[in-house]
Amino acid sequence: MSQLEVLSKSNLGSTSADLASEAEETLLYRKITWRLIPFLLLAYVICYIDRANVSFAYLRFKDDIGLSDAAYGLGAGIFYLGYIAFELPSNILLEKLGARTTLMRIMVLWGLVSAGTAFVSSPEQFYIARILLGAAEAGFFPGLILYLTYWFPANRRGRVTSLLMLGLCIAGVIGGPVSGGILDLFEGSTVMKSWQWMFLLEGLPAVIIGFVAFFYLSDGPMDAKWLSEDEKRRVLANLERDQQGKVQQHGGKAVLLKLLTDPKVFIASVAYFFSPWALSVLNVWGPAIIKQSGVENAFAIGLLTIAPNLAGAIAMVYVGRRSDRHGERRWHFMCSVGITAIGSLMLASMHDNWVAATVFLTLVGIGQYAAFVVFWSIPPSYFSRTTAAAGIAIISSLGQISGLLSSWILGILKEATGSMVVGLYLVSAIQILAGLLIVFGFRERVPAEKHTGH
């Protein structure tokens, strides 16, 4: 047998082994995905419904508790005071105490507070309830992002992050009609007002899911009884390869100080501050925009809010997969926020027509949700394992300040001008700023996902 034949057979054997190994790995991560993502997705859907249902309550309880547009915007946004204050400690506790205990505590508390919002009777009580809801929910989303880093390497994380963030869209698809339907169904109830029923009925499921999380989830691969020993080793080996080339930091205060003075943490935080302003347009002011365009029925408004969220879900999955495939985040993010900016501009000019308002809210949803999933694939790829918990929480906490300011400022502008036009122009401009920050602030590429040809 010639040397060439020996080499050819050796290469063929090596290629076959590689293909078999990649196929096994694909099956392994499919197994992990099906075990974790549906449950985390359900929890995230309930979370976002409980956070955003205030936009439907506003259609009815504005006069009951004496809220102006500016006061409502402040109340919707003041949620983030509690969220920001407790987010970093919550994420650090998740790393120390484990996912099961931390997620159970978060979900049970936020469910109780959300249900308790049914009993507010003044703007001041509304503000307190929203701050408490933020404190209870603090750490949930960045905790989920951190939890994914315990299981998935960087080249697979964009896809699973997009699947998880479908919760935002599904919450809008389900939450709008359900919230509007509850308002219409219980209108005229002699026991409680319709908006009170809405808070109560939508808050209690989080308590149930919280207790289920404690028994269903595993804190990490080594605790997963549903993985074999070989599967556990594979997952940990892939995660270890992710850490190669990253500087490992040790020491709590030193790590925190290092992160707070890291230019990229600052850039990511500012970009995240700018980008979610569009979420305020969708989730805080979306129902009011549709109502102002000429739709009065609460259930009909809920149905119309399906379009931005459904289209956003499709965009989220497509862009997340495409970003993984090409190993590129920055320009995917820039294009996504560009779509949001265009949608906001068009919405400002045609907000008096309900068809046009729905179409351009949908464009805002497409860009915003796609940008969201790409953004949250960037920081985990930059941080080492020892800095990930604090780094993600810092970016999320500093960025979440926009949740407070955007809702409030948009409310002030709406009250001062009688429409959302000026606010929408502002949202459009800052979307472009967010995109430019990411494009010029982050240069690294993540490894593209390997394909076996199937």
TrEMBL record:
Gene Ontology molecular functions: transmembrane transporter activity
Entry keyword annotation includes Transmembrane helix: yes
Lineage of origin: Bacteria, Pseudomonadati, Pseudomonadota, Gammaproteobacteria, Pseudomonadales
Membrane topology annotation: Multi-pass membrane protein
Keyword field: Aromatic hydrocarbons catabolism, Membrane, Transmembrane, Transmembrane helix, Transport
Coiled-coil region(s): none
Transmembrane residue ranges: 36-58, 70-90, 102-121, 127-151, 163-183, 195-217, 265-286, 298-319, 331-348, 354-376, 388-410, 422-442
Location(s) in or outside the cell: Membrane
Record organism: Pseudomonas delhiensis
Domain Major facilitator superfamily (MFS) profile: start-end pairs: 36-446
Name listed for the protein in its UniProt record: MFS transporter, ACS family, phthalate transporter
GO CC, one annotated term: membrane
Cross-referenced SUPFAM superfamilies: MFS general substrate transporter
Cross-referenced InterPro entries: MFS (IPR011701), MFS_dom (IPR020846), MFS_trans_sf (IPR036259)
Pfam family, one: MFS_1
Keyword Transmembrane tagged: yes
